């Protein structure tokens, strides 16, 4: 009598994430209801340069906006951000609050205009920091959503850092934030819609592909 080896039923293959450069683990962290995803892709784990693309979901699927140059922290990226490590936190973070020194450019996010959004001195490459906080969007890492970006509440504790923003690029690395040109920052503020539950997905390319 001939014994037949039973066929194994192949495991279903998980659908590929719909946005380029994102792996299944990263995409699983994006809330199902999010219809705006800003993907910030670092060129290298230890590099301070990145690109940023805003993806928006339409009736026909996801649509990519323009690819914009960006800066991140001086030492690159980390999965476990600590205060003073000069690395940007890898992960998926909601975008709920905005502000700046200049008047609201027309965003639908809550906007706190304040003279406290000031930056002085020079950056790591000797570039002036003036105007960097004219427009900012708070990245909801170790902060309380629904408050001004200036709010210093740190739910994870002060050792885990905070005050991580999207802000205007000053031409060099940041301490932990992500920076874009003034024009792109203005466009981003006008595009972000809290009803579409926007998030930022940020990290070096290899980490985002996980």
């Amino acid at each position: 009598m001939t014994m037949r080896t039973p066929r194994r039923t192949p495991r279903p293959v998980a659908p590929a994430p719909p946005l380029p450069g994102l792996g299944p683990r990263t995409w699983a962290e994006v809330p199902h209801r999010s219809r705006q995803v800003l993907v910030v892709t670092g060129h290298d784990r230890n590099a301070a340069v990145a690109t940023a693309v805003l993806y928006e979901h339409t009736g026909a699927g996801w649509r990519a906006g323009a690819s914009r140059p960006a800066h991140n922290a001086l030492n690159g990226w980390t999965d476990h951000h600590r205060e003073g490590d000069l690395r940007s936190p890898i992960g998926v973070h909601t975008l709920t609050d905005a502000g700046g020194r200049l008047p609201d450019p027309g965003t639908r996010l809550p906007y706190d205009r304040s003279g406290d959004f000031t930056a002085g001195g020079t950056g790591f490459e000797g570039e002036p920091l003036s105007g960097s906080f004219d427009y900012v969007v708070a990245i909801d890492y170790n902060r309380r959503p629904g408050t001004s970006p200036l709010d210093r509440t740190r739910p994870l504790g002060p050792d885990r850092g905070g005050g991580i923003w999207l802000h205007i690029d000053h031409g060099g690395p940041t301490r932990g934030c992500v920076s874009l040109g003034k024009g792109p920052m203005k466009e981003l503020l006008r595009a972000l819609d809290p009803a579409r539950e926007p998030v930022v997905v940020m990290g070096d390319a290899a980490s985002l592909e996980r």
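The longest helix spans residues 182-191. The helical segments are 24-28, 182-191, 205-208.
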